[in-house]
Protein 1
Amino acid sequence: MTQTKITLTPEQADAFGRELDAIKERVMADLGQRDADYIRRVIKAQRALEVGGRALLYFPPAWLAGTAMLGISKILDNMEIGHNIMHGQYDWMRDPTIRGGEFEWDTACPADQWRHSHNYMHHTHTNIVGMDRDIGYGILRMSEDQRWSPYFLGNPLYAFLLMVLFQYGVALHELETERIRAGEISVADKREVLQAIWQKTRKQVLKDYVAFPLLAGPFAPFVFSGNLTANLMRNVWSYMIIFCGHFPDGTQEFTVEETQGESRGMWYFRQVLGSANLTGGKLFHILSGHLSHQIEHHLFPDIPAQRYSEIAGEVEEICRRYGIPYNKGPLLRQFGTVVRKIVKLALPPKDRAETTPKDRERVAA
């Protein structure tokens, strides 16, 4: 889909940045007991769901309820607790159990690697092709600015496998598989990264698929399948929320040249154009880790996520005044456009001599 080129003058960008800075300063100054109470309630609920779910898996008639509870607990741990805590959203509380730089979550990806590949690489270089490794996760073609090769004919298959195995796809993120495939680096160069991934993945596999099933004795198959299904629930849900926040129709990617020397206001501008929100109710926002407000998260990744719904209307109004598209829509509609993009980008460009739309602009100039 052809997108209209939108830009801001330096003066507009500075004014836009000042308005968004003012929102952040106001919210950060207001943080207090209700925010601390909120995250502690969510952690308490997540732990209760996990304990209750695992206990019910020992009783086959309650398998469905136990699996659902365990799956929801894993979603909460991944989305609303782990992701947000590791962004430092609650560091101001000075509680060592939820300090962003030390928190470890219940998933295959080592937290230290996530803090680099996501918190730094992705949030600094959002949607910059060649710098933001979240564009395609090293295996997918998710932008017309990614050069096509026959490998990408498998785009739909790779996307499906990434969805059902998402925690392992995220775990391999720091491995930079696209650079290994291109011959820029070797597997040996990533020996320490691989070792950390192996240690964390082994721990998760032993916990969910060996230790808990063995404790169940004759009910081991029910516990094993419950853990497998709960992990699948978490993987599919996380994939859908994250991909719908970054790749539906209307989101944009950028070249390195386009973002050189950008001001604070233009950085905000890029975050808005490269993100999309999902509409829904309060429970939906909680289960998404409030990444349903992906625009606000990319603007203010260190603001406690439950505050995003309070400021989303104000951010949207500011974007409207500056003529900046504010992309939002329901989950299924946004996901439908993501799937369409995955299939479309599997195919070679119509004009193989001019690989991307931006290449064609440069040729015309």
Note: Confidence is low (pLDDT under 50) at residues 353-365.
Protein 2
Amino acid sequence: MTQADLADLVDTTRQTIISIENGKYTASLPLAYKIAKVFNLQIEDVFDFSEVVS
């Protein structure tokens, strides 16, 4: 799957997907759930929010 394919599936831009992959952007909760759903995973399996919550 390309970044563009994933972006289309979760209704965002390829640039957003790139930023998430590079750690420059933390996905919103709704976007994170959409990404997890695309891969049929739990959100915790896709994202590590430990740095966000202190």
Note: The chain is about 55% helix and 0% strand.
